[in-house]
Amino acid sequence: MPEPHLAHDTAGLLALDREHVWHPYGPMPGRQQPLLVESAAGVRLRLAEPAEGRRELVDGMSSWWSAIHGYNHPVLNEAVRGQLDRMSHVMFGGLTHEPAVRLAARLVEITPEPLRHVFLADSGSVSVEVAVKMCLQYWRSLGRPAKQRLLTWRGGYHGDTWQPMSVCDPDGGMHGLWSGVLPRQVFADAPPPGFDAGPDPAYEAHLREMIGRHADELAAVIVEPVVQGAGGMSFHSPAYLRVLREACDEHEVLLVLDEIATGFGRTGTLFAAEHAGISPDVMCVGKALTGGYLTMAAALCTTRVAEGIARGEVPVLAHGPTFMGNPLAAAVACASVDLLLGQDWALEVKRIEAGLREGLAAAAGVPGVKDVRVLGAIGVVQLEHEVDMAAATRAAVRAGVWLRPFRDLVYTMPPYVTGNEDVARICASVCDAAAAG
Ligand SMILES: *Cc1c(COP(=O)(O)O)cnc(C)c1O
């Protein structure tokens, strides 16, 4: 075992990593050796040592949907540096500061009306916890404590803490182990696939029936709008979101949209709810909020929800993470949103969408490929079987691209700054990975 201070060589660091460091969804000790990243700039990750003959990889993942402007961006670096020289953190209880206030006001401005109040959380999962707490507390404050369950559709993903796990897909998802331990929620069938597919009246009736039947015990419906991300990378018709909005209004149930993956332009509109022309009672954002620089998320709610909570016996929202509103994260989030809206981001997403459609068309002919789909800056190749993750990842790296396939999926959501040649290269690597996996 090398001493920690001696372990600056790649082999030493990887040995320490294996011995001590837990990785996402991984065993301990780790079975797959991670790649050691030395630095990142633009859309390229630089490895400490070559892997499959490559020292640099084009990033096809945006670090799990977050790094929309790429890495080491001068404007975002400057936002962090400038804030660092003023203060990196102060507690948010009893104190406030410009970066958090500016960010909250900006989020209210760019999200659908009538979202108006912002709870800054330190991760997406925590923002979902807060959103759920808001909804349950709203009904409790109104004297209807029986309304404490959630309805969602199958195939979703909302994070890895307790309440979010309870609304992730119960089968085939990552949290099946905990059925029987988690709060028991109400599951509707997964939405029929296809963004452009005409809405299925039988499915719409199913949604209405489920919400109606459980209305007395439902605090809220929570779904990912238009794209179900980590639950299976599937797309559905925005029409179903309009049905949810109507049924929720009819039956006095709140609607929570989890835009943590879809927010900030990824699906072609700034927020996916815009495809449906609806607005939720509570909305979660995260991932791309800080341009992938620091961990921050937010739960936004309407005045109706906030006022409902304020009318209760306990009129406060009892939630207050230590690092709530962190100034560094808030400052870089403001800069990231300004950077996004200061350019024709929709055109860039369309450009990438066109590149993905063209480049991934070849995958449709690969043996073992079941479906190829593209929406906004998201490209998905679904296999007929579980992907061999190690083989698929190796094939992508050999092609000079970083991908992270899972389940039966090889997919990409590149940074919006990815040039056409790099988009083509990512597509070629997705096809290679699909063939190898
Ligand atoms: C990633 C994600 C989350 C969880 O966010 P974390 O920051 O990883 O806790 C929740 N919902 C959706 C839709 C996500 O994609």
Entry summary:
By secondary structure, the protein is α/β, with parallel strands linked by helices. It contains 14 helices and 16 strands. Bound molecules: pyridoxal-5'-phosphate (PLP).
Fold blueprint:
Blueprint: H1 10-20, E1 37-41, E2 44-51, E3 54-59, H2 62-65, H3 74-86, H4 98-110, E4 115-121, H5 124-141, E5 149-153, H6 162-166, E6 186-188, H7 201-214, E7 218-223, E8 227-228, E9 234-235, H8 239-250, E10 254-258, H9 273-276, E11 282-285, E12 297-302, H10 303-310, H11 327-341, H12 345-360, E13 369-375, E14 378-383, H13 389-398, E15 401-402, E16 409-412, H14 420-436
Parallel strand pairs: 3-15, 5-6, 5-7, 7-10, 10-11
Antiparallel strand pairs: 1-2, 2-3, 4-12, 8-9, 11-12, 13-14, 14-16
Helix pairs in contact: 3-11, 4-11, 5-10, 7-8, 12-14, 13-14
Bound molecules: pyridoxal-5'-phosphate (PLP).
Pyridoxal-5'-phosphate binds next to helix 5.
